[in-house]
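Entry 14. Two folds queued back to back today. First construct below, sequence then structure tokens.
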Amino acid sequence: MKRTVKEVSPLKIFEQETYGKSYSTHRYCCEADLAPEPFHEKERDFVFDKYGETERHKKWIDLRKPVETISKLQVPLFSFFLDGSRRVYKLDDIEYNNRVYPILLGQIGASCCRRNIEGYIKNFRTDNRLILAVPSVADQDGGKKSIFFRNLCDKINAESSLKRLDLSLYKIISYPDLSGRDYADLAISNLHDEMLGMEKEFVNWLVKEERVLTPGNMLIKDGSLEYKNIKRGSFKDISQLKSNYNCVIGVSKRFNPEKSCDQKGKSNASLIAQLPLYHRTPAFKFKSNVATGEGGAVHFAAWYVRIRHIKHTVSPFDGVVKVERLLVDDRTVRDGLESDEINTISAHIVWERNPTCYGSDQRWANHLYPIHLTERCLKSRRLSDHVIMHLL
């Protein structure tokens, strides 16, 4: 009679190898059943540097003529769309030296969709990674080049129940033991950094390996391009990756309108709120306080575009998106982007708004439809919460 080999759970192996004590506590998704997201995204402070474009506009810029022009050409400017996501789970509590720490699992993903010449949008690349976030005290080598965690990750993948399911941990990362800080928040912050690093990895792959991004085949990245420098990974310093972003724009559905200023440094919030349909604000330029690294200062141009009529929305800022472009050379840092180029980009963004995903997302008024499809592509390839809860 064939004997059945009892499978060992990944967390059991982790407990044994790190000499911790598991409490087998209640498991839950840290991001389930949350209240609706705040409309204003928390944005970082920056050094305002006045104009971000060659023309000195003081009022809205009407985009209806460039929108009409590109409608006749029927050649979209944007061919690639990128979105990253994270979903975090509390799996257990573990004790070391009479102190109890949480163990979290992040399901970190990124998806890039491509629009072909016939206009069809298809998945180009989607990666989904399982990353375990644990306290740094669990490292038996004392954090020396993370060799211990790499070896432990390999052991879990080879000997645990994950192997039968054809799944694996991508890596094990640690969060610091900082007095007065919530350990779960530290773990989630590090997992979020992993997601941002994954987005930068995708852009680098599109530019250096696939070589598909050109001025006529640009990429829209969902969210801001103002990446802070992080401590880990090959893509931690955005200041050294500036050349990758020559054909990339970031589009944010949520933003803080107080972060936009006029040429005198005063808030442009009212200008944004009153934007007529298919108009944009003047572009402003700023130097990031968090993205500066070994490659020097990082400058951006940013502006706002209204893609839906205010009469169909709840808030005056619904239907408006924030657009960012990283300034990659000395000329654009000095003079800003060409205003005609900003108009062209903005007009193409207007065309990306339809068809609407009305009702399927509370952010519908600010959605660009290809980004909506990219989000759906990414979520469709994610493991369900039920699977994750019983996986480790």
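Second construct, same run, same settings:
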Amino acid sequence: MLQRIQTVFLLVALALLGLLFALPFARIIDAQGNEYALLATELPTLIIQLITFFVTLTTIFLYKKRMLQIRLCVF
């Protein structure tokens, strides 16, 4: 499965996408000292992350079909 370097990069991207589910995108502190965290719990953000996660996961297993793997990576 780890025959090409793009598969390694896809595994790294998959790990980073997995971290987005657990960690906040950003933390903002306003002038009064209140702290706000931007999480991936809103529906549009969650949908985009899930689509990206599953496309990346699917692309990893398409190592025998290199052109399709490249096209999905561009997507």
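Quick look at the second one. Strands lie at 26-29, 35-38. DSSP finds three helices and two strands in the chain.
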